[in-house]
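Action item from last meeting closed. Structure (382 res):
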């Protein structure tokens, strides 16, 4: 006999686990299914820290979602009695006309967000870990900081279970077949029927949503940790999290010494190398470490001590580098979520709410019009 559910969530990484928790909290009969186990090494939801910032350089339209996300993160912490969001401030660094600086400035001004614009000398005085060129500036977002991804994912799974959700790990979904009454889900362990399904499978999204095969590209991402030369300058009280615009060399991100491994840095999208999501992440190589060693030596000399470790994970990139949060075209019982492109984790707490709305109500009052299949089609026709 096929088990019956109101909603099934396929993929229990950041977005799927949050969606399942929001759905279960609304009293529906929900099931979550994942091929692996929480925050596994082939996911995009591990690695001890993720940036969160309110002055959003990518586009000011993200700011209202971030404001809701902050509220939801604090609500999650209250329910779990755990620390997930830590405020350190975020420095967004570059030339005054760079994308990161100009975009952050525009978001802050449009939404009336607290911020300070610092020249190189003032940045060095207040935050001595950072090395700016004389013509560079830094915008300080005092509400920025970092999230603990493993704690967030495990927390949402815990809340989903406590609210009555059925959760299956180590079970791969092979097919999703819509019908007049909903969707049949065929997995390696059985069959389920649900009125609605949320597909949030990260790097594997195109396997269940073939429409995205030429659009959602998993790529390799590398980050490294360094024991600082100056542990005083790199403590969170004196070294905010940061983004740095290096012009043609791309953009870099990093965190103060928040754990035993020290300061963490990476380059956004790294070398943009596609990966097979079903294969282990390629190992870190000399080219990877040379890139990150060179950056930290040049831009964060106080942090440029011994490299303790480096590791790979993956981003799933869409052509616009925006999100996709929408009902499947012609299939209103299927909700599709690919809300990352390397900058999505901070939105997990609001994306879970959005996916719950889409599954149960067919829409949401939250501003997601820019994240539709129609919007994606403008950048790369489906």
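Sequence:
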């Amino acid at each position: 006999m096929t088990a019956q559910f109101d909603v099934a969530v396929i993929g229990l990484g950041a977005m799927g686990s949050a969606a399942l928790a929001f759905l279960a909290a609304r009293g529906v009969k929900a099931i979550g299914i994942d091929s692996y186990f929480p925050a596994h090494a082939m996911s995009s939801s591990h690695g001890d820290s993720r940036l969160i910032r309110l002055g959003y350089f990518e586009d000011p339209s993200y700011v209202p979602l971030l404001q809701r996300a902050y509220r939801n993160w604090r609500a999650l912490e209250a329910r779990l009695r755990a620390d997930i969001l830590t405020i350190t401030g975020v420095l967004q660094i570059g030339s005054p006309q760079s994308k990161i600086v100009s975009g952050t400035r525009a978001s802050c001004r449009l939404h009336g967000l607290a911020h300070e614009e610092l020249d190189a000398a003032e940045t060095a005085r207040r935050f001595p870990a950072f090395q700016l060129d004389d013509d560079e500036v830094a915008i300080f977002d005092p509400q920025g900081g970092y999230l603990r991804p493993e704690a967030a994912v495990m927390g949402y799974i815990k809340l989903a279970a406590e609210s009555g959700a059925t959760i299956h790990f180590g079970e791969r979904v092979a097919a999703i077949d819509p019908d007049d009454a909903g969707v049949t889900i065929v997995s390696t362990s059985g069959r389920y029927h649900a009125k609605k399904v949320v597909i949030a499978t990260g790097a594997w999204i195109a396997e269940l949503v073939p429409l995205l095969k030429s659009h959602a590209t998993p790529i390799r991402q590398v980050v490294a940790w360094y024991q600082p030369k100056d542990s005083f300058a790199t403590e969170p009280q004196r070294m905010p999290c940061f983004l740095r615009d290096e012009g043609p060399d791309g953009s870099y991100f990093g965190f103060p010494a928040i754990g035993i491994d020290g300061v963490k840095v990476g380059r956004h999208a790294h070398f943009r190398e596609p990966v097979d999501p079903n294969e282990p992440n390629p190992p870190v190589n000399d080219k990877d470490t040379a890139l990150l060693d060179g950056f930290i030596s040049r831009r964060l000399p106080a942090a440029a001590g011994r490299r303790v470790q480096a590791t790979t994970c993956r981003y799933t990139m869409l052509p616009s580098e925006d999100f996709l949060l929408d009902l499947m075209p012609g299939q209103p019982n299927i909700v599709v979520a690919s809300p990352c492109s390397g900058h999505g984790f901070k939105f997990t707490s609001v994306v879970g709410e959005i996916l719950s709305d889409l599954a149960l109500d067919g829409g949401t009052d939250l501003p997601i019009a820019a994240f539709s299949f129609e919007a994606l089609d403008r950048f790369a026709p489906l």
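Note appended to the action item: The two ends are 37 Å apart (CA to CA).
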